[in-house]
Amino acid sequence: MTTIGIIGSGRIGSNVAKAAVAAGYDVVLSNSRGPDTLGPLVHKLGPRASAAHPAEAAHRGDLVLVAVPLGKLDEIPADALAGKVVMDANNYYPQRDGRIAALDDNSKTTSQLLQDLAPSARVVKAFNNIYAAEISEHGSPTGARDRRALPIAGDDSAAKHLVASFIDAIGFDTVDVGTLAESWKVERDTPAYTQRTTREELEAILPTVERVQQA
Ligand SMILES: NC(=O)c1ccc[n+]([C@@H]2O[C@H](COP(=O)([O-])OP(=O)(O)OC[C@H]3O[C@@H](n4cnc5c(N)ncnc54)[C@H](OP(=O)(O)O)[C@@H]3O)[C@@H](O)[C@H]2O)c1
Predict the structure, then answer these.
(1) pLDDT of the residue at 1
(2) pTM here?
(3) Would you tell me which of 70, 138, 159, 164 could form a disulfide with 174, CB atoms 3.0–4.6 Å apart?
(4) CA 206 to ligand 1 centroid distance, Å
Protein backbone atom coordinates (compact mmCIF):
# COMPACT_ATOMS: atom_id res chain seq x y z
CA MET A 1 0.00 0.00 0.00
CA THR A 2 1.26 3.45 -0.89
CA THR A 3 2.34 5.80 1.88
CA ILE A 4 1.93 9.55 1.51
CA GLY A 5 4.65 11.55 3.27
CA ILE A 6 3.44 15.04 4.13
CA ILE A 7 5.63 18.08 4.77
CA GLY A 8 3.33 20.76 6.11
CA SER A 9 0.24 19.49 7.91
CA GLY A 10 -1.91 22.61 7.98
CA ARG A 11 -5.05 23.13 5.93
CA ILE A 12 -3.82 21.46 2.72
CA GLY A 13 -1.71 18.76 4.36
CA SER A 14 -4.41 17.69 6.79
CA ASN A 15 -7.13 17.59 4.13
CA VAL A 16 -5.00 15.58 1.71
CA ALA A 17 -4.24 13.27 4.65
CA LYS A 18 -7.94 12.89 5.45
CA ALA A 19 -8.84 12.09 1.84
CA ALA A 20 -5.87 9.72 1.52
CA VAL A 21 -6.74 7.80 4.68
CA ALA A 22 -10.36 7.52 3.51
CA ALA A 23 -9.06 5.98 0.28
CA GLY A 24 -6.92 3.45 2.16
CA TYR A 25 -3.49 5.09 2.08
CA ASP A 26 -1.11 5.41 5.00
CA VAL A 27 0.03 8.94 5.78
CA VAL A 28 3.08 10.28 7.64
CA LEU A 29 2.50 13.86 8.73
CA SER A 30 5.11 16.47 9.64
CA ASN A 31 5.31 20.16 10.43
CA SER A 32 7.87 22.67 11.71
CA ARG A 33 7.19 22.10 15.42
CA GLY A 34 7.73 18.36 15.69
CA PRO A 35 5.65 15.17 15.67
CA ASP A 36 4.34 15.58 19.21
CA THR A 37 2.34 18.62 18.13
CA LEU A 38 0.52 16.48 15.55
CA GLY A 39 -0.86 14.02 18.11
CA PRO A 40 -4.47 15.25 17.97
CA LEU A 41 -4.53 15.17 14.16
CA VAL A 42 -2.98 11.70 14.05
CA HIS A 43 -5.54 10.50 16.59
CA LYS A 44 -8.40 11.95 14.54
CA LEU A 45 -7.13 10.34 11.33
CA GLY A 46 -6.78 6.91 12.96
CA PRO A 47 -4.37 3.99 12.62
CA ARG A 48 -3.29 4.74 9.05
CA ALA A 49 -1.75 8.02 10.23
CA SER A 50 1.50 8.72 12.03
CA ALA A 51 3.73 11.74 12.59
CA ALA A 52 7.46 12.27 12.10
CA HIS A 53 9.99 14.97 11.41
CA PRO A 54 9.88 16.29 7.83
CA ALA A 55 12.91 14.34 6.57
CA GLU A 56 11.50 11.06 7.90
CA ALA A 57 8.06 11.83 6.42
CA ALA A 58 9.78 12.32 3.08
CA HIS A 59 11.83 9.12 3.43
CA ARG A 60 8.77 7.05 4.33
CA GLY A 61 6.58 8.48 1.58
CA ASP A 62 6.15 6.71 -1.74
CA LEU A 63 4.56 9.98 -2.72
CA VAL A 64 5.48 13.17 -0.84
CA LEU A 65 3.33 16.28 -0.50
CA VAL A 66 4.93 19.66 0.19
CA ALA A 67 2.32 22.11 1.52
CA VAL A 68 4.06 24.89 3.43
CA PRO A 69 3.87 28.67 3.09
CA LEU A 70 6.04 29.41 0.05
CA GLY A 71 8.28 31.72 2.06
CA LYS A 72 9.25 28.71 4.21
CA LEU A 73 10.19 26.50 1.27
CA ASP A 74 13.92 26.81 1.77
CA GLU A 75 13.53 25.50 5.35
CA ILE A 76 12.31 22.05 4.31
CA PRO A 77 14.80 19.16 4.10
CA ALA A 78 15.23 19.27 0.34
CA ASP A 79 17.89 16.51 0.35
CA ALA A 80 15.26 14.07 1.65
CA LEU A 81 13.23 14.63 -1.51
CA ALA A 82 15.96 13.23 -3.78
CA GLY A 83 14.43 10.81 -6.28
CA LYS A 84 10.96 11.15 -4.77
CA VAL A 85 7.73 11.92 -6.56
CA VAL A 86 6.82 15.21 -4.87
CA MET A 87 3.44 16.91 -5.07
CA ASP A 88 3.82 20.66 -4.77
CA ALA A 89 0.70 22.47 -3.52
CA ASN A 90 2.33 25.82 -2.94
CA ASN A 91 1.14 29.22 -4.08
CA TYR A 92 2.71 32.67 -3.92
CA TYR A 93 1.16 35.28 -1.65
CA PRO A 94 3.74 38.09 -1.32
CA GLN A 95 2.02 39.59 1.72
CA ARG A 96 2.59 36.25 3.49
CA ASP A 97 5.72 34.97 1.75
CA GLY A 98 7.69 38.17 1.10
CA ARG A 99 8.63 39.24 -2.41
CA ILE A 100 10.36 36.56 -4.50
CA ALA A 101 12.12 38.18 -7.46
CA ALA A 102 12.00 35.13 -9.75
CA LEU A 103 8.21 35.01 -9.38
CA ASP A 104 7.74 38.75 -9.64
CA ASP A 105 9.51 38.84 -13.00
CA ASN A 106 7.90 35.58 -14.19
CA SER A 107 11.27 33.91 -14.76
CA LYS A 108 10.16 30.93 -12.61
CA THR A 109 6.98 29.24 -11.52
CA THR A 110 6.38 28.34 -7.88
CA SER A 111 7.00 24.67 -8.64
CA GLN A 112 10.28 25.45 -10.35
CA LEU A 113 11.47 26.99 -7.07
CA LEU A 114 10.90 23.62 -5.37
CA GLN A 115 12.49 21.78 -8.30
CA ASP A 116 15.56 24.04 -7.99
CA LEU A 117 15.84 23.22 -4.29
CA ALA A 118 15.55 19.48 -4.91
CA PRO A 119 16.99 18.92 -8.40
CA SER A 120 16.53 15.15 -8.49
CA ALA A 121 13.01 15.19 -7.08
CA ARG A 122 10.23 14.40 -9.54
CA VAL A 123 8.10 17.46 -8.81
CA VAL A 124 4.46 17.57 -9.84
CA LYS A 125 2.24 20.60 -9.26
CA ALA A 126 -0.91 19.37 -7.51
CA PHE A 127 -3.58 20.60 -5.09
CA ASN A 128 -2.62 24.27 -5.49
CA ASN A 129 -5.87 25.02 -7.29
CA ILE A 130 -8.48 23.89 -4.77
CA TYR A 131 -9.50 25.23 -1.37
CA ALA A 132 -8.13 22.92 1.28
CA ALA A 133 -11.41 21.77 2.80
CA GLU A 134 -12.77 20.88 -0.64
CA ILE A 135 -10.10 18.19 -1.03
CA SER A 136 -11.86 16.06 1.55
CA GLU A 137 -15.38 17.23 0.57
CA HIS A 138 -15.61 17.38 -3.24
CA GLY A 139 -14.31 13.95 -4.20
CA SER A 140 -16.52 11.51 -6.10
CA PRO A 141 -16.02 8.06 -7.65
CA THR A 142 -14.20 7.55 -10.95
CA GLY A 143 -16.60 8.16 -13.82
CA ALA A 144 -19.11 10.10 -11.71
CA ARG A 145 -21.10 12.75 -13.60
CA ASP A 146 -19.70 16.29 -13.15
CA ARG A 147 -16.65 14.95 -11.34
CA ARG A 148 -14.31 17.75 -10.33
CA ALA A 149 -10.94 17.86 -12.11
CA LEU A 150 -7.69 19.16 -10.65
CA PRO A 151 -4.80 20.43 -12.77
CA ILE A 152 -1.38 18.83 -12.53
CA ALA A 153 1.90 19.84 -14.18
CA GLY A 154 5.40 18.41 -14.25
CA ASP A 155 8.43 17.50 -16.31
CA ASP A 156 8.34 13.74 -15.55
CA SER A 157 5.49 11.87 -17.27
CA ALA A 158 5.74 8.79 -15.06
CA ALA A 159 5.59 10.97 -11.94
CA LYS A 160 2.53 12.76 -13.29
CA HIS A 161 0.92 9.39 -13.96
CA LEU A 162 1.49 8.30 -10.33
CA VAL A 163 0.08 11.56 -9.00
CA ALA A 164 -2.93 11.34 -11.31
CA SER A 165 -3.60 7.81 -9.99
CA PHE A 166 -3.47 9.06 -6.40
CA ILE A 167 -5.75 12.00 -7.16
CA ASP A 168 -8.18 9.66 -8.93
CA ALA A 169 -8.19 7.36 -5.91
CA ILE A 170 -9.15 10.23 -3.61
CA GLY A 171 -11.95 11.39 -5.85
CA PHE A 172 -10.86 13.70 -8.67
CA ASP A 173 -10.07 13.68 -12.36
CA THR A 174 -6.89 15.42 -13.47
CA VAL A 175 -5.95 17.64 -16.39
CA ASP A 176 -2.30 17.77 -17.45
CA VAL A 177 -1.36 21.42 -17.86
CA GLY A 178 2.13 20.63 -19.18
CA THR A 179 5.60 21.20 -17.75
CA LEU A 180 6.56 22.91 -14.51
CA ALA A 181 7.47 25.96 -16.60
CA GLU A 182 3.88 25.98 -17.86
CA SER A 183 2.31 25.57 -14.44
CA TRP A 184 1.77 29.36 -14.17
CA LYS A 185 -1.44 28.62 -16.09
CA VAL A 186 -3.00 27.44 -12.83
CA GLU A 187 -1.16 29.65 -10.36
CA ARG A 188 -2.85 32.28 -8.19
CA ASP A 189 -5.40 34.57 -9.83
CA THR A 190 -5.56 32.76 -13.16
CA PRO A 191 -9.05 32.04 -14.56
CA ALA A 192 -9.25 28.44 -13.34
CA TYR A 193 -7.72 29.17 -9.94
CA THR A 194 -9.81 27.51 -7.21
CA GLN A 195 -12.72 27.09 -9.65
CA ARG A 196 -14.79 23.95 -9.39
CA THR A 197 -14.50 22.60 -12.92
CA THR A 198 -14.97 19.28 -14.68
CA ARG A 199 -12.20 17.97 -16.91
CA GLU A 200 -13.93 19.38 -20.01
CA GLU A 201 -14.43 22.80 -18.41
CA LEU A 202 -10.83 23.01 -17.25
CA GLU A 203 -9.54 21.91 -20.65
CA ALA A 204 -11.60 24.68 -22.25
CA ILE A 205 -10.23 27.38 -19.92
CA LEU A 206 -6.51 26.55 -20.15
CA PRO A 207 -5.85 27.71 -23.76
CA THR A 208 -7.36 31.11 -22.91
CA VAL A 209 -5.06 31.85 -19.97
CA GLU A 210 -2.59 34.71 -20.36
CA ARG A 211 0.42 35.27 -18.13
CA VAL A 212 0.26 38.44 -16.11
CA GLN A 213 2.73 40.11 -13.78
CA GLN A 214 2.42 39.06 -10.12
CA ALA A 215 0.79 41.72 -7.96
N1 LIG B 1 -5.36 26.79 2.34
C2 LIG B 1 -5.74 26.59 1.08
O3 LIG B 1 -6.97 26.51 0.79
C4 LIG B 1 -4.71 26.41 0.01
C5 LIG B 1 -5.16 26.00 -1.26
C6 LIG B 1 -4.22 25.73 -2.26
C7 LIG B 1 -2.86 25.90 -2.01
N8 LIG B 1 -2.46 26.35 -0.78
C9 LIG B 1 -1.01 26.54 -0.60
O10 LIG B 1 -0.51 25.40 0.10
C11 LIG B 1 0.54 25.79 0.98
C12 LIG B 1 0.14 25.41 2.41
O13 LIG B 1 -1.04 26.15 2.72
P14 LIG B 1 -1.91 25.83 4.02
O15 LIG B 1 -3.13 26.68 3.90
O16 LIG B 1 -2.03 24.35 4.21
O17 LIG B 1 -0.96 26.44 5.14
P18 LIG B 1 -1.11 26.33 6.73
O19 LIG B 1 -2.49 25.89 7.10
O20 LIG B 1 -0.59 27.60 7.28
O21 LIG B 1 -0.11 25.13 7.10
C22 LIG B 1 1.25 25.25 6.82
C23 LIG B 1 1.96 24.03 7.34
O24 LIG B 1 3.32 24.11 6.96
C25 LIG B 1 4.11 23.77 8.08
N26 LIG B 1 5.45 24.32 7.99
C27 LIG B 1 5.85 25.60 8.02
N28 LIG B 1 7.18 25.67 7.91
C29 LIG B 1 7.63 24.41 7.84
C30 LIG B 1 8.91 23.83 7.75
N31 LIG B 1 10.01 24.58 7.68
N32 LIG B 1 9.01 22.47 7.72
C33 LIG B 1 7.90 21.69 7.78
N34 LIG B 1 6.64 22.19 7.86
C35 LIG B 1 6.52 23.53 7.89
C36 LIG B 1 3.34 24.34 9.25
O37 LIG B 1 3.80 23.74 10.45
P38 LIG B 1 3.81 24.55 11.84
O39 LIG B 1 2.39 24.92 12.10
O40 LIG B 1 4.39 23.58 12.80
O41 LIG B 1 4.69 25.75 11.59
C42 LIG B 1 1.92 23.90 8.88
O43 LIG B 1 1.71 22.55 9.22
C44 LIG B 1 0.73 27.29 0.79
O45 LIG B 1 1.76 27.51 -0.13
C46 LIG B 1 -0.62 27.74 0.24
O47 LIG B 1 -0.53 28.93 -0.50
C48 LIG B 1 -3.34 26.59 0.22
Answers:
(1) 60
(2) 0.98
(3) 164
(4) 26
